[in-house]
Task: structure prediction
Amino acid sequence: MDVYLPIANLSVDGLVIVALGALTGVLSGLFGVGGGFLTTPLLIFYGIPPTVAAASASTQVTGASVSGVLAHSKRRGVDYRMGAVLIGGGVIGSGFGALLFNFFRAIGQIDVVINALYVVLLGSIGILMAKEALQTLRGSAGKQAPRRRHHPLVASLPFRWRFYASGLYISPLAPLLVGVVVGMLTMLMGVGGGFILVPAMLYILGMSANVVVGTSLFNILFVTIATTIMHSVTTRAVDIVLVALLLLGSVSGAQFGSQFAVKAKPEVLRLVLAGIVLLVAFNMFLRLFYRPDEIFTVSPL
Result:
């Protein structure tokens, strides 16, 4: 089933795109990540220009997040107060990200920037998550996991609030700054930001693990809506046909992933996610040194 993507100016196999959307949805519900960290690279590998892949993936992540939030909300796995602060920061960050996106595209370096960001961020986060998951699995036999604490810098910030669902008493400035960073990355890389947000919630904010996935998806939902609007207005790189195909598979996939996440061991899930992250980072690293026969990108008119 071949379909034409008008913005990308390509004909692609629609079933392959739908299957990719389903995979994204499963990751969304399973790990609390929007799935864009995997969708964007795979779309690039498939031959879609990085600018179109990044802009369209952020739009598709919105649909997967809606499905995932509903599933986690039923089991009270969402901290809405924490999510609201993160969303505020994400909207601000997406504005800064739009400025950077247009700047790098104007100088002809946006494709390189997108690939390099994936290598650096995915590589470092994948190593951190794998190390922590392995340490937990090795020391978990007969032992109770220690209570997770927030970073010392977070404790030093003023104006503390109580986030009851997360079990925290910290300054809202910490999640606000985290949200700004995630918003910028969402705009630049077409990711929901969950692969950054989930580790930040666990290792920096010290949130309770049972609300991390749902709160991450809640934040991703609104931040990707904001970035979609900004991409449509500023970069005009969103391919609606590509988005529709991805959404077709992702919504159902998110429900399946959310159901499985409740039954699986969190440490094992983090180890699996770390392996996927590192694999994608390695592939993106190779692409930095690979020169195709035909070079193409999307540039402003």
